[in-house]
Amino acid sequence: MDGSANRVFISYRRDDAAGYAGRLEEALEKRFGRGSVFRDVLDIPPGEDFVTAIRTRLSGAQGVLVLIGPRWAGGELPGQRRIDDDGDFVRLEVAAALTTGARVVPVLLPGAEMPAEADLPEPLKPLARRNALSLSDAHWPADIDRLAAAVGLPGRRSVWPWALGGAVVAAGCVAALCWFKPWVPTDPTDRLIGSWQAEVTYSWRAKHVERFEFKRHAGQLTGTATFLSYPRAIDKLEFDGSNLRFETHTQQSMGNETRELTHRYSAELRGQTPDDLLALRMQTSGAFHATPPLEFDARRVAPAAASSSPSR
Question: What is the CATH number of domain 189-308?
């Protein structure tokens, strides 16, 4: 294994913090270099034993970030939580990390609190004595700075002047080639165009198959997103080729009062076509009762399949 690779290990529960884990990996690799962060299944080659791969990466990690969201324990009651199961992958990861020489940093996500030592199974009790940092959307750049400093790894190497000179020469060669053969760039928004589908479990336990349709109209990206299986027009859509943001609106009534709800979505486009997915996070504001953020994955589907799939 390359000594520069997998220097930071991100531990998280997928149905609790998948969206934040992906964004954090991207942010840290911009600082420490490509391949410097390990994040479970996306970094394990097909056919490799999952548990063995996790232990191997942990043994070489210099820093371990334990992402703790509202559902990190995997349940509400002691004895019924996934973290209390000896075979739980998150428990195995954290317990193994605490026995290495790596710096283990708990990272609290919005809506989460640091678990007390008494609430943790025996192998994880030392985690409660580690100083925790917070990660939020509102203070994302500053929080990433603090996390990077806490990990204590050197950033990317500076580019020497002679390397810059070589880059200029290479750019000149590319320009000369383009003079003879025009280069037609690929529009990064093409990866988003089409139909996507996800099964979403809301905070009141209702399950719905939600659909997202993206298209280009008059040179602009537009589309619809369903909420409780009803399509809503997408507003304020922004997409840079990998990160997506948009919002939708709906009405909620209680008694004689009606409110407009705003659903704000942020997503990361991962993988390669046709196996790519959208790791989505949705936050609703304006409701009569506070609702926690939802995180879920949407996968690409054929338009016919999207229109015919029933909600559950």
Answer: 2.40.128
The stretch 234-242 carries a mean pLDDT of 88
Q: Which residues contact 305 (CB under 8 A, 6 or more apart)?
A: 195, 197
Asked if 196 and 300 count as a contact pair (C-beta separation under 8 A), the reply is yes
Ranges of each domain in the chain: 8-151, 189-308
Tokens of 153: 């790894």
Q: Alpha-carbon distance 245 to 268, whole Å?
A: 9
Q: 41-72, pLDDT tens digit by residue?
A: 555 666 777 778 777 888 878 899 999 999 99
CA distance 111 to 135: 11
Q: 3-class DSSP state for residue 270?
A: strand
Three-state DSSP state, 62: coil
Distance (Å, rounded) from C-alpha 43 to C-alpha 259? 44
**Helix, strand, coil fractions of the chain, as percent rounded to 5:** 30, 30, 35
From residue 292, alpha-carbon distances to 69, 204, 307 in Å are: 11, 11, 28
pLDDT of residue 310: 44
Task: Answer whether CATH 3.40.50.2300 is correct for domain 8-151.
Answer: no
Q: What is the mean pLDDT of residues 211-232?
A: 87
The reported pLDDT for the residue numbered 237 is 92
Residue type, 189: T
Alpha helices, H only, the chain: 14-32, 50-59, 89-98, 140-151, 161-180, 303-308
- Residue 259: CB partners within 8 Å, gap ≥ 6? 251, 252, 253, 286, 287, 288
Q: In what order do the strands lie in the sheet containing 133-134?
A: 37-38, 8-11, 63-68, 103-108, 133-134
User: What span, in angstroms and rounded, lies between the C-alpha atoms of 137 and 109?
Assistant: 9
Contact 8, 38 (CB under 8 A): yes
Is pTM, for the whole model, over 0.70? no
Q: What is the DSSP letter of 256?
A: T
